[in-house]
Amino acid sequence: MALKKKPVKGMNDRLPEEMEIRDYVIGLIKETYKSFGFSSIETPCVEHLENLLSKQGGDNEKLIFKILKRGEKLKIDEAKEEGDLTDGGLRYDLTVPLSRYYANHANELPSPFKALQMGNVWRADNPQRGRFRQFMQCDIDILGEPSNLAEIELILATTCLLGKLDFKNFTIRINDRRFLKAMAAYSGFQEKDYEKVFIILDKMDKIGLDGVASELEECGYAKESVEKYLQLFKEIKNDVEGVRWCKEKLQGFLEDEAADSLEMIITSVEHAKEAEFTIRFDPTLVRGMSYYTGTIFEIAMDEFGGSVGGGGRYDKMIGKFTGQDTPAVGFSIGFERIVMLLSERGYEVPSKREKKAFLLEKSLPKESVLKVLEMAKKEREDGKQVMLVKQKKNKKFQKEQLKEQGYTDIIEVYADSNFD
Amino acid sequence: MALKKKPVKGMNDRLPEEMEIRDYVIGLIKETYKSFGFSSIETPCVEHLENLLSKQGGDNEKLIFKILKRGEKLKIDEAKEEGDLTDGGLRYDLTVPLSRYYANHANELPSPFKALQMGNVWRADNPQRGRFRQFMQCDIDILGEPSNLAEIELILATTCLLGKLDFKNFTIRINDRRFLKAMAAYSGFQEKDYEKVFIILDKMDKIGLDGVASELEECGYAKESVEKYLQLFKEIKNDVEGVRWCKEKLQGFLEDEAADSLEMIITSVEHAKEAEFTIRFDPTLVRGMSYYTGTIFEIAMDEFGGSVGGGGRYDKMIGKFTGQDTPAVGFSIGFERIVMLLSERGYEVPSKREKKAFLLEKSLPKESVLKVLEMAKKEREDGKQVMLVKQKKNKKFQKEQLKEQGYTDIIEVYADSNFD
């Protein structure tokens, strides 16, 4: 009656060493965002299929784990399609559940509402390095705050967290969907083509200016527009100067407010940051999700060769659930990537407790056991982590194992041990 | 395009106040068991259906949320039964995943292995007060320790946790499956009838001695056996005296070792306990799951009018996965019940941070915003929780809301405010 030992495809068992880092990072995330006034929330892992399939999730909607209906016995042989058998699915992100949550509870929540949501999400992706079918997401959102105070606080809190984890020299890339649109309009692209143009622009990192130029031309856009467009990217500086330059150059296409706001975000973050990093205006930053309406940002970390988080303003999405637009800005942290980076660099969780082990002789008399229990209690009250174990035949190996687990102080206990 | 606002049936959104308690209790659980040398582990929420259906789960196996297979397109119209369409399901407890986990990783784990697993489980139960379709379980297990040191530490750690949550005057009921069997054998019941007898005995709390007697007789068991059986319960004291009395009385039916071990567990717990509670030998304690092989225990809490946790020794279960018997003792804490009890009695999480709010005038000039950001940073560095919010029209209401959230120190900030 041997059963399957391996976990299901693409999902992981977590060993104690990994869990120690995970638990520590989770605690630090909760602690840090709390200090900025964020509240923890939780939503169920199972969500209505119709919410999951509401076109907010992009390609993730193809990767849903669907759940058989419960209740009356299912008539499998009469079923024609998946919809006849399923009504729920495992969530693929935390954004759809957050929107539903806010729609359901806005009356009970403060405004603005600063929410921290951590939880597992599931995607039936093809597993590969750093990509799993169950993974933890960590979303931080401010709902109901139209001003850029929301962006400023999100970036400050998130970078503060990364600083506490000893990450240095990372970069916050920041842009605004309104800049993206204004640049495209200024260059003569038509509104209907914007999304396609942005998808190509998004490849700048990989294929460079010339690559973007030739792809745009291949798509049949006017050479004049393409040249005008690319000239902008050549001239724009990656700082507040660049933002101001855009404000001048894109007049008539870009609202002054958008430029002033972006400048203020960059200045404020530089002024009040609590970690070592750079914030860089990056007009080539696109971010895939079409629900973004304003500021967008991403954490670029050279160590990882990619992004470990990002987000932006999405003022229209909550309204799709509630019928009433609610300003919203969110940040999603790549929890799994951060844990992976920490593990790879041999990160040691700052341990607050000394570790002490008592190795008890196998048939220790009752009185001695009582004595050891008492000592262990006292050591714990003094703040130590105390392990009691029975001695094994191979005591040497046992002690080595304990040392590997960090038990530096190992006391062997025998019937004749005297602890008074 | 309005979407469904309510969560799926029987599963809950968690509001910030509830989450504050949950997060606190989770942190305390991890901290407390860690101080006893337990390690956190995690298993996927999705488990192989064949593992879930391996008859370890009792009635829970009827309550599984099954998940549609992924991969090739499903041929719904050709499917005859659920097994044609599903290969995974949401776990209904943490015991099956723990057994699989240990089978998969025993070589990488210390022995004995002291594991703490917290995570959601799902059961398609009919929702009612205190019973949900998604809920958090918290299991603590010691694998690979045959001696009663495992039972002693599990009970000490768990009661220490409850003490830290200000629970008092609860009772640990303790018994041993071997006592149950010995008492039945002594009274003349046949081995094949034990489980049926125990199911009736388990009702003692509700129907009393006489009720148990008449139900046993109704089932057709010999009057003599029933009387002999019940006489035992009348005579047994609920302490170590009772255990010793059984050792004498049940000679030939009960191994001495079982009685000595139970006596030692009770004595040790009384000696080294770190909370105010009673440990009581309770020969009527049955616990449903038939996989228990030795000690069984339960936390009885009058406040709740029932059990908030329990467990026991199950030396045969791991072997079903591994083919090799592994001694095991586990405790499952009723996390949701504990959180409910705390909420109902208005439990306030011990807050370490003072809370301070800055209420910013709506169009505060940039220089002032920078100044406030700087002050907030300093306050956070001093250990405070700092909230920045823009002033709203109804400032009075806004301040009341902040006070309700615990922001006792509220500073209004205007362009002409002087903070130097």
Automatic annotation (TrEMBL), chains A, B:
List the EC numbers from the record: 6.1.1.21
Q: Give residue ranges for domain Aminoacyl-transfer RNA synthetases class-II family profile.
A: 1-350
Keywords, ordered alphabetically: ATP-binding, Ligase, Nucleotide-binding, Protein biosynthesis
- InterPro entries given in the database record: aa-tRNA-synth_II, aa-tRNA-synth_II/BPL/LPL, His-tRNA-ligase, HisRS-like_core, HisRS/HisZ
GO BP annotations, alphabetical order: histidyl-tRNA aminoacylation
According to UniProt, the reaction catalysed is:
tRNA(His) + L-histidine + ATP = L-histidyl-tRNA(His) + AMP + diphosphate + H(+)
Q: Does the keyword Protein biosynthesis apply?
A: yes
Gene3D superfamilies found in the cross-reference section: Bira Bifunctional Protein, Domain 2
MF terms (GO), sorted A to Z: ATP binding; catalytic activity, acting on a protein; histidine-tRNA ligase activity; RNA binding; transferase activity
A GO CC annotation recorded here is: cytosol
Q: Which Pfam families match?
A: tRNA-synt_His
Q: Does the keyword Cell cycle apply?
A: no
Residues that coordinate or bind L-histidine: 93-95, 123, 137, 141, 287, 291-292
SUPFAM superfamilies from the xrefs?
A: Class II aaRS and biotin synthetases
Q: Which family does it belong to?
A: Belongs to the class-II aminoacyl-tRNA synthetase family.
Give the protein name, as stated in the record. Answer: Histidine--tRNA ligase
